[in-house]
Amino acid sequence: MTEEFKRDVLAGLSQSPQKTLPSKYFYDKRGDELFVRIMSLPEYYLTRAEMDIFRNKPHELIAALQKDSTRHHEIIELGPGDGTKTLELLKALIEEGFRVDYVPIDISQNALDSLQKCL
Known about the structure:
Blueprint: H1 2-14, H2 29-39, H3 45-56, H4 58-65, E1 72-78, H5 84-95, E2 99-105, H6 109-118
Parallel strand pairs: 1-2
Helix pairs in contact: 3-5
């Protein structure tokens, strides 16, 4: 990765007038921690609104999807972060007898490794 990183940094910082760096380099353990802190800021209401739905209305959400609990389902999540919101939904699905596989997809290997530990 060091050669690719070097090329990306040189290319991005050589641009004019706007310098850039690919965001994939910000998603390490420290970057993930910073993003979690950003999500807890008062200005970042989206995460709290989503968590409110997953925590307080998961069964209504499941009913709205009109899925058959006798069939197997896959939950594919793009950018799960720490996965806390989805875990609430997964718990409700299991309570209702759904058979599910959870497939998180994230640019951060650290986030995926952390999710693997808690599942």
